[in-house]
Amino acid sequence: MQSSYTREELLACSRGEMFGPGNSQLPAPNMLMMDRITIMDPEGGEHGLGYIEAELDIHPDLWFFACHFPGDPVMPGCLGLDALWQTLGFFLACSGGPGRGRALGVGEVKFTGQILPTNKKVTYKIHMKRLVKRRLFVGIGDGTVEVDGRTIYEATDLKVGLFTDTSAF
Amino acid sequence: MQSSYTREELLACSRGEMFGPGNSQLPAPNMLMMDRITIMDPEGGEHGLGYIEAELDIHPDLWFFACHFPGDPVMPGCLGLDALWQTLGFFLACSGGPGRGRALGVGEVKFTGQILPTNKKVTYKIHMKRLVKRRLFVGIGDGTVEVDGRTIYEATDLKVGLFTDTSAF
Ligand SMILES: CCCCCCC[C@@H](O)CC(=O)SCCNC(C)=O
Ligand SMILES: CCCCCCC[C@@H](O)CC(=O)SCCNC(C)=O
User: Fold this and answer.
1) A23 lies in which domain range?
2) Where, by residue number, is the active site (chains A, B) (predicted)?
3) Ligand 1: residues whose CB is within 6 Å?
4) Whether residue B68 lies in the annotated active site
5) Coil, strand or helix: which one is B112?
6) In chain A, how many domains are there?
């Protein structure tokens, strides 16, 4: 596990080049929701079980501003939420889990502020609460989304699993 | 309020033509996550406060299958969740609320199955639990996502508000 990852490394992960065939991939653009991972600390966070920080640079030509909504651009809350699953899932895959990443759910989500084309930077933060490393790898954590330093989304019990066989879903 | 809406009507809503300037719009493609609303009953549902059903036709060339994930196509869970906020928000706007729609959160989300390019139809169902029609319109409801008749996502306390002034966020 590295302590940080560049956009080029995240894109290689989305192509399946980081963890190999049958294992986890990040989504590729347009679903990839981060530009870099700045902190990955397997013993950090509120519970000492892992802390991850990732970033997305905001610029007005990001694809979702044009369609959400026409004339009233705001980043879809669901995409910021997906970024939290992506960040947590990447940590899980880096922790050695085999299989493909699937989001399994989230406890409670609150959106108290919005991300506009005039903003500069979005920061995703995950505190791992539980990491199950059995046949099935599952990770649970709490996450926040900040825009230019202000916390605007909060999500508890984000849950991602890694599946060597996804046919049972 | 009509009892059903076609894709053409939903697209007109996304362009701002249904509710007029400054009022609610659905997201336009690629963020619009439904093809039609089949049932809209303001007195239906488990609580008699409203029931809405919407559909998305699945075909392998939907944009998100190519990037999520390359070689391992599955519909992003966050987009199915957004569809539930879209469905609830549309009901709220049809209930007469002025202002622009913003998702405010969700209680608990569980993904127990996946949507693949080989599937045919996704159905979104919302049971309204609460509808506040003050200066600020807020709607809360429970929702499910079904794929070809099987319930695979469940979400409680989906919350959307309509804001005549979004600058306070
Ligand atoms: C016809 C009415 C339709 C309302 C549609 C709401 C659907 C969601 O896509 C909204 C967000 O994600 S809004 C952005 C997240 N929330 C905030 C406060 O920024
Ligand atoms: C390097 C590892 C990255 C894992 C990324 C998970 C990010 C999400 O975009 C996953 C879903 O939405 S999976 C689809 C929803 N869940 C199911 C069971 O279908």
Assistant:
1) 7-163
2) 68
3) A 74, 76-78, 111, 114; B 13, 24-27, 82, 85-86, 89-90, 93, 101-103, 160, 169
4) yes
5) coil
6) 1
Residue B169 lies in a domain: no
Report the candidate in B27, B19, B48 with the shortest Cα–Cα distance to residue B129: B48
CA distance A125 to A61: 24
Confidence at residue B69, expressed as pLDDT on a 0 to 100 scale = 98
CA distance linking residue B42 with residue B50, whole number of Å: 4
What is the number of the ligand 1 atom nearest to the C-alpha of A78?
Answer: 12
Pull the structure tokens for residue A121.
């930077």
* Cβ contact A27–B85 (<8 Å): no
Q: Alpha-carbon distance B86 to B34, whole Å?
A: 9
* Model pTM score: 0.98
Residues with Cβ within 8 Å of A159's Cβ and at least 6 positions away in sequence, in order, are A103, A104, A105, A106, A138, A139, A140
- Tokens 């979004």 correspond to B166
Q: A28 and B71: CB-CB below 8 Å?
A: no
Question: d(Cα A96, Cα A114) in Å, to the nearest integer?
Answer: 35
For residue A168, being part of any structural domain is answered with no
Query: Would residue A41 count as lying in a domain?
Result: yes
For residue A163, give both structure tokens. Answer: 């599946």
- Residue A167's contacts (CB-CB under 8 Å, 6 or more residues apart) are none
Q: Six-digit token pair at B50?
A: 């409203």
Q: Give residue-wise pLDDT tens across range B67-100.
A: 999 999 999 999 999 999 999 999 999 999 999 9
**Amino acid identity for residue B39 in this structure:** I
Q: Which residues of chain A have pLDDT under 70?
A: none
